[in-house]
Amino acid sequence: MRSELEPTTAEWRQRFETINTFMLDLDGTVYLGDQLFPWSLPFLRKITAQGKQYIFVTNNSSQSARYYVEKLTRMGIPVRSDQIFTSGEATRYYLDKYSFARRIYLLGTPALEEEFREAGFTLTDDRPAAVVLGFDLTLTYEKLRRACGLIRQGVPFIATHPDFNCPTPQGPIPDCGAMTALITAATAVAPKVIGKPHQEMVEALCAKFDIEPANVAMVGDRLYTDIAMGRQAGIMAILVLSGETQREDLDGSPFQPDRIAEDLGEIAEWL
Fold it and tell me: A GO molecular-function term, please (predicted)?
C-alpha cells in the first residue's frame, strides 16, 4: 500500500523539485542488515540520471567510511568513500572548527581510532583536549575509569551520537547513548553530542559538500534522529516506513516529517 501523503500540492512539488542532494540513512532505509531493499538501486540510478547526488549519512561511529564502501559495493551500489558521512567524521569537523588541540582520549573501536589517527589526532590520556566517546564495541572498565577521571578534572566530554540502541539481526544492542548515560551517571557531566539529530551534523555535512540546506532532503526511517534532524535544521525531512518507524508511531511524536513514503521506491515515483 502506498502512502496517502502523495506530493500533490503545487507548493510542495515546487519545493521538492529544488532538491538536488539526498541525505540517506542506511539501515532501514537503503538496506536491512545485509539485505539490500529491491527498490534502493533503481532509486539511486534515477537520482543519478537526473543529475542529483546522494550522500549516505549514518550515526554509527563504530565503522569507517571504508567499511560502508565495501558493504555497499558488495550489494551492487556504486559509491565512493566521499559519499559516506559518519558521526565520527562530524565529530572531527567539530573538534577542528572549535580549535581543540589534536590530543584526545578516545573511547572507540579500532576502526574509529584509525580514522582519528589518519586525520592527525593523537590518542592519549595524558592532558587530552577532550574525551570523545563513540559506539565502542571494545569498551572496557579501564577505558570508562580513565574517561570518568578526566571528565571529573574538567576535560570536555563529547559523544559522537545519541542513539541508545543499535539494531542487529539478533536484536538491539547498547549504543553510544547508553554508554554516555553510564558516564554521565558517574560524573554528573552531560556530553556535547554531535550526530543526528543535532545541528552539528548538518553543519559538517553542508561544509564538506558545499550544499545549501534549502536544496537538501533527509530521508530516513527514524523519527527521533533522521526526521528530527531535518526539521530542526530546516531541511526537507522524508520518512520511509521500511525500517523502524511504523505509521502509528507518528501519533503524538514531536518530530513530524514533511512527507511520508512507504520506501525509496515511492520517492522515486515522485521524481
Answer: metal ion binding
Domains of the chain (ranges; CATH) run 10-59+196-270 (3.40.50.1000), 100-193 (3.40.50.1000)
Which of 92, 94, 93 lies closest to 106, judged by CA? 92
DSSP state of 224: I
Task: Assess whether 136 carries a catalytic annotation.
Answer: no
- How does pLDDT run across 116-137, given as a tens digit for each residue? 999 999 999 999 999 999 999 9
Q: Is the pLDDT of residue 4 over 60?
A: no
- Model-wide pTM > 0.70: yes
Confidence of residue 6 (pLDDT cuts 50, 70, 90): very low
Q: Binding site annotation covers 221?
A: yes
For residue 53, give the nearest of 75, 83, 11, 74 by alpha carbon. 83
Query: Does residue 175 have an active-site annotation?
Result: no
Q: What percentage of residues in the chain have a pLDDT greater than 90?
A: 76
Active-site residue (options: 27, 175, 226, 258): 27
Q: Could you give the CA distance from residue 151 to residue 148 in angstroms, rounded to a whole number?
A: 5
208 annotated to bind ligand: no
d(CA 80, CA 91): 20
